User: Which sequence fits this backbone?
């Protein structure tokens, strides 16, 4: 749990997130209809999804299994018995007039998510994660004065993951959401595609004076990018503070974020649980999860990010922060492992991945699996630094050429660009003798105790070798000659 708050204009921010992760089943939660994205409107809506009279829901075992997997991964209690409820509200894209969800007894209870903001470790407690069906979609843009209804999404299986109000800044909320996103993709329970709505967040935001009770919250709905999540929360924080400082009270409400204006606006007064008239769904029996089922799921779990990070610290000697960065996604971890195994330099691989590789990926909006420089090539480049073939500066030039497609072979690029460091000790010593003879004053100053004079001599030596000498070798030979 977050223990230190950064105040905004003297106010403490309180944030909790409700995240909808679309489960990676091929069929819907209560029917056999496909969950594939992009089909023509209303072509993937069965009689059950349309709520035609006489149809009954049938639970999708795969959806339950994915919920169990998530519960185990976050250290939660997987309820041996949970109940499905009807959440009653009227909206055009909700065919039944209610949504099947879980209320009083959810399938996953408790747990926590760990993440870093910078190099500071944070932990956010989870309240619950429950199974539910998605609604359809209202289409406004393509119809003048009318609204179209696409029920392809109706009945799509969701796991709604609810956090405690433990976050105190938009940066914490974004890193929590990133960690949660990485985890559900890592577990294989959600594809994480935010553009297609597979992972979306609702942010509950309030402000209070330090030490006061929680303020009135407003819920920002359906944020489908980490950038929008941060922008929406930051705007909402300042809007609430302005309202309170102008003498107004905050009214509980559901609000939408407009990415074009960067503003939130109220959509409706926020409902409380009693407004939805929850009651157990009479068409679905209690969901029973036997301990044997949980054990089978546990036996098929992948190595979790936290466990893998600890292994990287223990076996590879990585600092905790580096290890957490290497496990930010399964693809990232696999890339690191492949490069580290190929060159045997875990810390250097981590440095390159956190530095130059991540900088390029972020600038171009790519994931590690779309890196133009693969793990084997990066490992070869690092090996050439380690064996003294190339300097760090030369390695960056080679990496740049690899990234932009100017070449694919590390050694060929080093040769073609003349970046190979001098490895002939005799030739280097001859050059250093000339440098010392031409810079007698610096030699005299160094021997008088002025360390800066040594740096000047190193600079002259690198200039004389046109940057091709190994700096470490230059340092070692120079000191030896100056002590003679």
Assistant:
């Amino acid at each position: 749990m977050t223990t230190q708050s950064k105040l905004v204009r003297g106010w403490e921010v309180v944030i909790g997130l409700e995240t909808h992760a679309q489960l990676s089943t091929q069929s819907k939660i209560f029917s056999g209809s496909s969950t594939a994205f992009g089909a023509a409107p209303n072509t993937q809506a069965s009689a059950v999804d349309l709520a035609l009279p006489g149809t009954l829901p049938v639970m999708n075992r795969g959806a339950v299994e994915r919920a169990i997997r998530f519960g185990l991964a976050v250290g939660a209690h997987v309820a041996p018995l949970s109940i499905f409820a009807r959440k009653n509200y009227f909206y055009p894209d909700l065919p039944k007039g209610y949504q099947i969800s879980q209320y009083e007894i959810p399938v996953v209870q408790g747990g926590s998510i760990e993440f870093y903001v910078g190099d500071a470790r944070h932990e956010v407690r989870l309240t619950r994660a429950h199974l539910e069906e998605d609604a359809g979609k209202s289409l406004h843009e393509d119809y003048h004065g009318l609204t179209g209804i696409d029920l392809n999404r109706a009945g799509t299986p969701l796991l709604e993951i609810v956090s405690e109000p433990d976050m105190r800044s938009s940066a914490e909320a974004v890193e929590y959401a990133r960690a949660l996103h990485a985890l559900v993709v890592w577990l294989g329970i959600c594809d994480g595609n935010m553009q297609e709505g597979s992972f979306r967040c609702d942010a509950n935001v309030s402000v209070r004076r330090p030490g006061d009770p929680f303020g009135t919250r407003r819920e920002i709905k359906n944020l489908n990018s980490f950038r929008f999540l941060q922008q929406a929360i930051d705007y909402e924080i300042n809007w609430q503070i302005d309202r309170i400082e102008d003498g107004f009270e905050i009214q509980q409400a559901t609000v939408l974020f407009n990415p074009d204006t960067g503003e939130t606006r109220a959509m409706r007064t926020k409902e409380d649980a009693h407004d939805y008239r929850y009651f157990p769904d009479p068409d679905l029996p209690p969901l029973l999860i036997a301990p044997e089922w949980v054990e089978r799921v546990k036996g098929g779990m992948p190595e979790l990010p936290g466990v893998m990070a600890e292994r990287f610290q223990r076996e590879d000697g990585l600092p905790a922060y580096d290890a957490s960065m290497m496990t930010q996604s399964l693809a990232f971890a696999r890339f690191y492992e492949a490069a580290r195994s190929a060159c045997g330099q875990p810390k250097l691989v981590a440095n390159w991945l956190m530095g130059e590789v991540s900088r390029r990926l972020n600038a171009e909006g790519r994931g590690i699996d779309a890196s133009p420089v693969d793990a084997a090539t990066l490992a070869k480049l690092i090996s050439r630094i380690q064996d003294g073939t190339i300097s760090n500066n030369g390695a960056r030039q080679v990496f740049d050429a690899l990234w932009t497609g100017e070449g694919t072979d590390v050694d060929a690029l080093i040769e073609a660009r003349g970046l190979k460091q001098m490895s002939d000790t005799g030739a280097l010593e001859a050059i250093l003798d000339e440098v010392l003879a031409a810079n007698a004053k610096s030699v005299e100053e160094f021997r008088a105790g002025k360390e800066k004079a040594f740096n000047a001599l190193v600079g002259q030596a690198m200039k004389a070798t046109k940057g091709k000498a190994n700096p470490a070798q230059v340092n070692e030979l120079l000191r030896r000659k100056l002590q003679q």
